[in-house]
Amino acid sequence: MTDSHMEEQLRRMLAEQAAGAAPSEPPYGAIVRQGRKARRRFRAGLATAAVVLAAIPGGAFAAQGEWFRDSGSAHAAARHTGFPDGAGVTPVSSPADSGESGGTGPSGPADPERQLLDGITLADATESLERCLDEYPQDVTSEQLRIVLAWVSQGDPNRGEEPLREVLAISDDPGGNFQVVCSDRPEGDLTGVMVSGSDYGTGLPVAPDLNATRFFHPTTGEWRTPFRWADFGLVEPEVRRVTVSYAGSTEEAVLEGQYFLVAGIAEDQPTDPPVVIGYGADGEVLYDSRQDPFYEPGM
Amino acid sequence: MYNEAEEAFQEFVRSRWSALVRTAYLLTGDRHLAEDVVQSTLAKAYRSWPRVCRSDNPDAYVRRMLVTCHRDRFRKRRVAEHLTDIPPEEATAQDDMARADEREVLARALAGLPKRQRAVVVLRYWEDLSEPEVARALGCSVGTVKSQAAKALAKLRVLLGSSRLALTG
């Protein structure tokens, strides 16, 4: 049987299969209640995070983005923040009002010079992140996230040869468990989004993110040097310093929001995977990736 | 503004509910679960309705949300996946019996696919999306869609081909 015949048969069988599902009437009331509940939960979470960051009077928070009549939620958020009704709070480092929705956008990194690389501005990174979330909706909005690393990576035969803007964002709420890496071409197609939780569960003081391995080396195709690489992962509070040695140099990672974040340039093609070392307050080695049974750098 | 948006959302739910449930059914293999996933998806759509409306294609936007909801459900809860909910067999004529058998075999064959391959099959051959559209819906490259579709078809050919059913053409 040819592929096209197989496909034709499959379409028919799927249609017949789906027809057997016989959906009931849509539970419109339940959908709306669930949507409103999720909205209130989001607003309460945002308010909690916002209090940690800063308090700016204004009213933007209470006024933002409501299309449905759910006045109780705005009041609940105001109570939660400790601000009176009508007063608002917003994260400090948001780049700009995002327009129609009245959103404030994601927070920016603690050390932009070391975390926004290759000429990427916070506005650029925000644009890419919001484009990702528009294209691939998640349980979070950009307002709930903090951009912690942005860099330009090489393209490849699979994703296209033009350079890509990579943006790593994490939950702005310290208790959150969400991270996303957006791969974007501002002048072209969005090429992908990689979402994961940030609880790797290794129990070690440093946990390099297994998803970061794709940023060490070309995912497909040949090496082209110089090569911009990036790495990130989680650190426990007792870790005060992280270094990553790769391609003949050692880079000092930024520690922010329970993450280590680092990027460098490989002038020559490396032969060994990155070595991640975590140090304690007295300079003692708390973690060495060479002794980590969970570390699978894939090189 | 409120009334217009609310009415537009209500109309969207009314007109798209059945199609979304059918897609979810093919993804999950369970009618009740399919309705749950679609309900969660539409609740999220309600929360982000202005953004959904601003998108070029609200249908495609919500379909992506549906795929994400389905994927997250398995990722977060590690729910074991068993496609056991076979549509009721109402027919008694021989042809209809054969079709019911065919649906049962297809249900089992779909259940035998990894969930990403099943999603590719459902979006590509039931929703009739193009490869780039499937890639956008699943958050992967077109190359991945092609390879996953090829693997899925090869598996289905084996799973379905071993039965006496319609794929003998």
TrEMBL record, chain A:
Query: Which parts of the chain span the membrane according to its record?
Result: 42-63
Where are the residues of the annotated region Disordered? Answer: 77-114
Name the domain of life: Bacteria
Q: Which UniProt keywords apply?
A: Membrane, Transmembrane, Transmembrane helix
Designated name of the protein:
Uncharacterized protein
Q: Which organism is this entry from? A: Streptomyces hoynatensis
Highest classification ranks of the organism:
Bacteria, Bacillati, Actinomycetota, Actinomycetes, Kitasatosporales
Automatic annotation (TrEMBL), chain B:
Q: Where does the source fall among the domains of life?
A: Bacteria
Q: Which Pfam families match?
A: Sigma70_r2, Sigma70_r4_2
- CDD domains reported in the protein's UniProt record: Sigma70_r4 (cd06171)
For this UniProt record, give its keywords in alphabetical order, as a comma-separated list: DNA-binding, Sigma factor, Transcription, Transcription regulation
According to the entry, every stretch annotated as the RNA polymerase sigma-70 region domain falls at 19-78
Give the Gene3D superfamilies listed for this entry.
1.10.1740.10, Winged helix-like DNA-binding domain superfamily/Winged helix DNA-binding domain
The GO molecular function terms of this record are: DNA binding; sigma factor activity
Give residue ranges for domain RNA polymerase sigma factor 70 region 4 type.
104-156
According to the UniProt entry, the coiled-coil residues are none
Q: Which InterPro entries match?
A: RNA_pol_sigma-70-like, RNA_pol_sigma-70_dom, RNA_pol_sigma-E_actinobac, RNA_pol_sigma70_r2, RNA_pol_sigma70_r4_t2, RNA_pol_sigma_r2, RNA_pol_sigma_r3/r4-like, WH-like_DNA-bd_sf
Q: What GO terms in the biological process aspect are recorded for it?
A: DNA-templated transcription initiation
Which PANTHER family does this chain map to? ECF RNA POLYMERASE SIGMA FACTOR SIGM, RNA POLYMERASE ECF-TYPE SIGMA FACTO
Which family does the record assign? Belongs to the sigma-70 factor family. ECF subfamily.
Query: What is the name listed in the Swiss-Prot or TrEMBL entry for this protein?
Result: SigE family RNA polymerase sigma factor
**Could you tell me which species this protein originates from?**
Streptomyces hoynatensis
